[in-house]
Specification:
With 491 residues, the chain is α+β, with helices and mostly antiparallel strands. It contains 16 helices and 23 strands. 32% of the residues are buried. Helix content is 36%, strand content 27%. Helix 2 crosses helix 12 and helix 5 packs antiparallel against helix 6. The strands form 7 sheets. Strands 3-9-10-16-13-12-11 form a 7-stranded mixed beta sheet, with helices on both faces. The protein has a 5-stranded mixed beta sheet with strand order 20-19-21-22-23, sandwiched between helices. A 3-stranded antiparallel beta sheet has the order 5-4-6. Bound molecules: adenosine-5'-triphosphate. The site of adenosine-5'-triphosphate has 16 residues, from strand 10, strand 13, strand 16 and helix 12.
């Protein structure tokens, strides 16, 4: 990260804390690494992102229904899914600093450094080699790549590395109060992804909601990963929230559905007014053996292009695994007619295309894209400044601030009446303290798109001044038009 982007990113983190968006977890005890709490405005913003995803997935698609599965699952789930044996990242330790790195992160950091030095070809070459070696699980080759490129530890400054090893990322805990001689008897995992709750409920949902293929199941919820390199604020956390949708399709149609969801998900991001040029796809070279196709939707965060969402065509791998381990059929009877045979498609294990996005990562995307330290030229030739969050109106924690110019002359009463008329429809904020300019700045800092001021003229002609966050333009409108103006922007 360059010094400038580092400074901007640090300012965003400080702003998030100062204005009640994100706090380090258990901060009075010096925090817990890679765990965060969301404050009053943060929890509201996070909920709005979750609701926007949920509505667009379930309400706006008649063939997608919701689910809320438990965090704890039968331990065999994670044997079947492959997480017990394979959910690990290749790691390497520096022997001098004892610091452990994820191999891909270490190499990517070197690539970033090369890019900053203007060595574009070398950057491209190292990333290409890394992708190929990761795809082949070639740890000897990856170690050689690290050695050949003289990659050093950022703490010790040395290249004194261990061999590359695998490290499982699942947290485990004990279940129930019964003690056993074998500690593994009571062992359960904190789910590392929400998807498996959907797979094991596939038939429950299909039958009770009478779903016909193709159909999807959507879910949001907590996931836990013992990330080794937990850094970059809420980008990589040990406890985080996912928003996932598994779409069950007839085998042979997965290619077209993969293409559909790849495009559909990018459209969802852009529907929030986010800049197209900050998005790109990254198609995976390394595919799991069961995977047909996979890609990431990447966004340009302050620290570079990074994954925010994954789209994966997973074949029938998960359902077949659960069928094998549970010894219960995970099949669907398709009575549509196959034109080739003239007979129904019959019984099969459906294929799955999934979309998986991190809610906290989306939160960081929204926050970092919205943050601006704006310089405002004044008429006398000097400059003023403000920190403003250009949050999408749909997602802003507070939609409307209602500000009586003074605390007297009946202005607060008019303001409260407006507040009572609007609060059932969207989140409003009332404030009568401090000069109006100061109150506007505070609303800019939390991203409130509209402020209305009630003044003495309001008493005469029932108009108010509405002030728009991004342009800072003000205009007078009838007080009874305020509610509809805001509603128009949020639906
Ligand atoms: P990464 O390569 O960044 O570790 P991943 O490929 O392991 O991510 P998936 O398993 O595909 O991620 O999870 C889907 C989404 O969940 C990711 O795109 C990301 O938005 C989110 N996510 C994954 N791990 C974390 C984490 N530790 N903290 C926050 N969000 C995460």
């Amino acid at each position: 990260m360059s010094t400038q982007t580092e400074t901007t990113f640090q300012s965003i983190i400080s702003h998030a804390k100062e204005y009640g968006f994100v706090f380090p977890s258990s901060e009075i005890y010096d925090g817990l690494s890679a765990v965060y709490d969301y404050g009053p405005y943060g929890s509201e913003l996070k909920k709005n992102i979750r609701d926007y995803w949920w509505k667009s997935m379930t309400q706006m698609h008649e063939n997608i229904v919701g689910l809320d599965a438990a965090i704890f699952m039968h331990p065999t789930t994670w044997k079947a899914s492959g997480h017990v044996d394979n959910f690990s990242d290749p790691m390497i330790d520096n022997k001098d600093s004892n610091k452990r790195y994820r191999v891909d992160h270490l190499i990517e950091a070197k690539a970033e450094q090369l890019a900053l030095e203007g060595k574009k070809e070398e950057e491209f070459a190292i990333l290409k080699s890394m992708d190929e070696l990761l795809a082949a699980d070639d740890y000897v080759g990856l170690k050689k790549l690290i050695d050949d490129n003289k990659i050093v530890c950022s703490i010790s400054g040395t290249a004194n590395w261990t061999e590359i090893r695998q490290f499982n990322l699942m947290f485990s805990t004990e279940f129930g109060a019964i003690s056993s001689d074998n500690p593994d008897d009571n062992k359960v995992y904190l789910r590392p992804e929400t998807a498996q709750g959907i797979f094991v409920n596939f038939l429950n949902v299909q039958k009770t909601a009478r779903m016909k293929i193709p159909f999807g199941i959507a879910q949001t919820g907590k996931a836990f990963r013992n990330e080794i390199v937990a850094r970059q604020f809420i980008f990589r956390m040990r406890e985080f929230e996912q928003m996932e949708m598994q779409f069950f399709v007839r085998p042979g149609t997965e290619g077209e559905w993969y293409k559909f969801w790849k495009e559909e998900r990018l459209k969802w991001h852009l529907s929030l007014g986010l800049p197209t040029e900050k998005y790109r796809y990254h198609d995976h070279v390394k595919l799991a053996h069961y995977a047909k196709e996979a890609c990431d939707i990447e966004f340009e965060f302050p620290f570079g292009f990074k994954e925010v969402e994954g789209i994966h065509s997973r074949s029938d791998f998960d359902l077949t695994q659960h069928q094998t381990y549970s010894k219960k059929k995970q099949q669907y009877f398709d009575n549509d007619i196959d034109e080739a045979t003239g007979k129904p498609y019959g019984n099969y294990v459906p294929y799955v295309v999934e979309t998986s996005i991190g809610l906290d990562r989306m939160f960081l995307l929204i926050l970092s894209n919205a943050y601006e330290e704006e310089v405002i030229p004044k008429e006398d030739g000097t400059n003023d400044s403000r920190v403003v969050l250009h949050l999408p109106t749909k997602l802003a924690p507070i939609k409307l601030a209602i500000l009586p110019l003074t605390k007297k002359d009946g202005l607060p009463e008019i303001a409260k009446e407006l507040m009572d008329g609007c609060r059932a429809y969207f989140h409003c904020f009332y404030e009568e303290k401090d000069a109006i300019g100061k109150r506007y700045r505070r609303q800019d800092a939390i991203g409130t798109p509209f402020c209305v001021t009630i003044d003495h003229q309001t008493k005469e002609d029932n108009t108010v001044t509405i002030r728009y966050r991004d342009s800072m333009q003000q205009e007078r409108i009838a007080i009874d038009k305020v509610k509809d103006l805001v509603l128009k922007e949020i639906f």
